[in-house]
From TrEMBL:
It holds the Pfam family T2SSF. Keywords: Cell membrane, Membrane, Transmembrane, Transmembrane helix. It is found in: Cell membrane. InterPro entries: T2SS_GspF_dom (IPR018076). Its main location: membrane. Residues 169-294 form the Type II secretion system protein GspF domain. This is Tight adherence protein C. It is a multi-pass membrane protein. The chain crosses the membrane at residues 6-26, 103-121, 133-154, 277-299. Coiled coil: none annotated. One of its GO terms (cellular component) is plasma membrane.
Length: 307
């Protein structure tokens, strides 16, 4: 037994001693590196690491979109840049796309889907006319798909703003009644909430610090989001500021109105639910019921008249 335990004990002590030594050396190097960075400063990050840290969309697809945008705008002279800019702003600037880059994306996606469908149908026995027709449909789908995606982003963003607005107004009301100014109340919203309204109010505060009038910054926020309840709230705040009305009373009334509108929208959605359920009931449930109830009678009739 001693022959077994003695080597095992020596090996364990050697392992513990090696572990303690390596830990001491590594901790010392970490302290020295930290102290050196405090005196000299951090070492510059290699350019390759900086480039690899950028998302692949910005590294690969952004340059392609920029180059394609020049040709796409020439081929599509009727492209309305102002309307598209407004829609991109309402959608929250997805992937930081400019209007021309968005048109280039539609152009590339349309061409890619059209060519991909044509090449995929080459292995089939369809006539050439059907190949071209299906490819044209694929190209049309690729052209319309970014617009559908953009509209869905706008709709979802507006719904999120409508959901966040009552809570945000309640917090602003409480802050104003506690003695804070309107800017201080918006600062509290930025600190306590993380959402679309928090980001927009943070931008409003930044613009106000840079010298832009608060009413103009609020109007820009309402234009960017384009939500009726928010626009009404901004108009009330601007009017209260111009006429010298108590901001607390205005915020209390606005909070109550927004919650009433939210309750009405929920009630409207509940009332529409039974009507929307008629389509799946008529398509999926009624045929099954008819088969179960009338199936045996139909089989019996076929047996009687089939003789």
């Amino acid at each position: 037994m001693e022959r077994i335990f003695l080597p095992a004990g020596i090996s364990g002590l050697a392992f513990i001693a090696m572990y303690i030594t390596l830990k001491f050396i590594l901790e010392r190097r970490v302290r020295e590196k930290k102290r050196l960075e405090e005196i000299v400063g951090t070492s510059p990050v290699p350019i390759r690491e900086v480039e690899l840290s950028v998302p692949i969309f910005r590294r690969v697809f952004k340059p392609i979109l920029k180059n394609t945008a020049r040709f796409a705008v020439r081929l599509l002279p009727l492209f309305d840049e102002e309307v598209l800019t407004k829609k991109l702003v309402e959608a929250g600037r997805p992937y930081n796309l400019s209007p021309r880059e968005f048109v280039a994306l539609k152009f590339l996606l349309s061409g890619f889907l059209g060519v991909a469908i044509y090449l995929g149908l080459e292995i089939t026995a369809f006539p050439v006319i059907q190949h071209l027709a299906l490819s044209a449909l694929g190209g049309l789908g690729g052209w319309l798909l970014p617009d559908a995606f953009l509209n869905s982003l706008i709709k979802k963003r507006k719904e999120n703003v409508e959901k966040e607005l009552p809570e945000v107004l309640d917090l602003i009301t409480v802050c104003i009644e506690a003695g804070l100014g309107f800017d201080g109340a918006m600062t509290k919203v930025v600190e306590k909430y993380s959402g679309i309204l928090s980001e927009e109010m943070s931008q409003v505060l930044s613009e106000v610090r840079m010298g832009k009038p608060r009413r103009e910054a609020l109007r820009k926020m309402a234009e960017r989001l384009d939500v009726d309840d928010l626009s009404s709230f901004v108009s009330s705040v601007i009017m209260a500021e111009q006429l010298g009305i108590s901001m607390g009373n205005v915020m209390r009334v606005q909070s109550r109105e927004v919650r009433n509108k939210r309750r009405q929208r929920i009630q409207e959605a509940v009332m529409k639910a039974p009507i929307k359920m008629l389509i799946p009931i008529a398509v999926f449930i009624f045929p099954s019921l008819f088969i179960i109830l009338l199936g045996p009678a139909v089989i019996q009739l076929m047996r009687v008249f089939g003789r």
